[in-house]
């Protein structure tokens, strides 16, 4: 992955949480990578978890030690430190963790040994069940009359990871921000820092951008993308 132009001036947030790059997950503590390969069996899904305040780092490192691919989006932000402006990385979605798991493994995370009697009743497994909880799909009701845990399609997560892993501060959440569609066609970005992102062309904050929807969760937009960098799918 190419280094950012101002890599020397970018500092990690005080929490120490490191953004996890696509297509490899790197533990900020161990440096061990976990290759992400889309699950051919269809059993694994991208689950959205909420982490209790200030404990995202513990959850991320635990998941990576278990061989799970996780992603925590971050972006650059300029802050005033004394008399100097420094660029730091901050969480784009504080206390949210995305993890690629099968349903049983996801339940084990949120319920600990109570979800499966084969799970070792370790202090760490119990602690994870106190740290992580599901984000639920409020647009769906299951056979029991409840909202199931939200999962994000692989194709949407891929575009989201590519876009947010640039750390571009102009990548924006669209909730509450007005935008208009320039076309109903699905497009792909073929050049530039957002190469590989798929979505629809919109206009937001007077700029042409690509809409990235995470169904049932949130919508985002890239920073400005010139027309020459876009092709219709």
Describe this structure in words.
The protein has 233 residues and is α+β, with helices and mostly antiparallel strands. 17% of the residues lie in helices and 35% in strands. It is built from four helices and 16 strands. It has helices spanning 56-65, 103-111, 123-131, 154-164; strands spanning 10-11, 24-26, 33-35, 44-51, 69-71, 74-81, 84-91, 96-102, 132-134, 151-152, 172-173, 180-189, 198-204, 207-214, 218-221, 230-232. Strands 11-15-14-13-12-16 form a six-stranded antiparallel beta sheet, covered by helices on one side. Helix 2 (103-111) crosses helix 3. The two termini are 26 Å apart.
Largest sheet: 6 strands, antiparallel
Order of helices and strands: EEEEHEEEEHHEEHEEEEEE
The N- and C-terminal alpha carbons lie at a distance of: 26 Å
Average of the residue pLDDT scores:
82
Dominant shape: globular
Task: List low-confidence stretches.
Answer: 1-25, 27-33
Please give the count of helices. Answer: 4
Helix percentage range = 10-25%
Cα gyration radius (Å): 19 Å
| Global structural class | alpha+beta
How are the strands ordered across the major sheet?
A: 11-15-14-13-12-16
Strand content: 25-35%
The strand count comes to: 16
């Amino acid at each position: 992955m190419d280094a950012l132009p101002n890599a020397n001036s970018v500092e990690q947030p005080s929490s120490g949480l490191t953004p996890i790059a696509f297509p490899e997950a790197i533990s900020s503590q161990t440096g061990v990578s976990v290759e992400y390969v889309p699950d051919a069996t269809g059993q694994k899904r991208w689950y959205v978890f909420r982490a209790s305040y200030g404990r995202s780092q513990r959850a991320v490192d635990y998941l990576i030690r278990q061989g799970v691919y996780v992603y925590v989006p971050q972006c650059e932000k300029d802050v005033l430190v004394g008399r100097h402006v420094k660029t730091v990385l901050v969480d784009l979605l504080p206390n949210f963790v995305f993890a690629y798991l099968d349903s049983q493994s996801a339940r084990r995370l949120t319920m600990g040994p109570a979800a499966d009697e084969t799970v070792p009743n370790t202090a760490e497994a119990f602690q994870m069940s106190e740290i992580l909880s599901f984000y639920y799909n409020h647009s769906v009701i299951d056979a029991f009359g409840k909202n199931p845990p939200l999962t994000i399609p692989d194709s949407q997560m891929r575009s989201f990871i590519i876009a947010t892993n640039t750390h571009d501060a102009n990548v924006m959440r669209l909730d509450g921000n007005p935008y208009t569609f320039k076309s109903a066609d699905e497009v792909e970005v073929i050049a530039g820092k957002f190469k590989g992102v798929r979505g629809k062309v919109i206009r937001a904050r007077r700029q042409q951008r690509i809409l990235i929807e995470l169904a049932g969760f949130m919508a985002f937009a890239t920073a400005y993308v010139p027309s020459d960098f876009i092709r219709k799918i």
